[in-house]
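Quick start: what a row looks like.
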Amino acid sequence: MQEIREPRRPPTGRPDSTGGRPTESEAMSDRCTNCDGRIPAEEWHPVTTVRDDDGEVEIYAFCSEPCRTAWQDERADDE
C-alpha cells in the first residue's frame, strides 16, 4: 500500500536579501511536488508555473503527468 503524503510546497527561503523567496539554487527541486518522488535531472519532466499574490512566478516540478494532474486537481478543490 502506498503511503499518502501531503503535497510538497516549494522552499520558502530565508528572511534575507531575497525577501524570503527561494534562491536560484532552491528554486528547482529534484523531488516531485505532489508525491515527493525523485525526479532525474537529466530527463524531461512536467512542470507547472503559478503566480503568487505578489506576481512572482513559482515553478512546481513533477515526476509524471498523473502527479501534476493530481496536484492541479487538489489545488482546484482548495480554491
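That is the whole record. The beta strands are 47-51, 57-61. Confidence is low (pLDDT under 50) at residues 1-5, 10-17.
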